[in-house]
Amino acid sequence: MLEWLNTHIAYWHWLVLGLLLVTAEIFVSGFVLFWFGIAALFMGALLLLVGMPIALQLLLWAGLSIALVLLWLKFIKPNWKDRTTSGMAMEALTGQVGSVIESNIGKPRGRLRFPAPILGEDEWQFMSTSEIAIGERVTVVNISGNTLVVSPR
Known about the structure:
single chain, alpha+beta, CATH 2.40.50.140, 4 helices, 40% helix, membrane, NA-bd_OB-fold, transmembrane, NfeD-like_C
């Protein structure tokens, strides 16, 4: 079997496999097949330059695929997280914690800032039944129009 593969597998087989795997990523969630496809495309390009036995090809493809998946999971995927809540339901805003940057003492409303933008904004007006000083942390308990209803933590 290996003899047959050594004589019949050409660089374009790897390129076709790579394109199929990258295309299949459209239909599968997880973004894993993509890296196996990239590794196959790399193997196809490498075979254009250097001939090698099928066993070494498979070993390099598997090693490169695993390395790319690990790099994806360790370094790239954590930075791709959507840290905004844009597009989420209003109920998703309840429970968010922010810091007061403009007190509501003596005023009906104050201003707070979240560590990450919520619905595209990191600063929001708030109202509360209690007076909250600058620097205190508050939790969103409800939303009234464009104003957050908060309670002190």
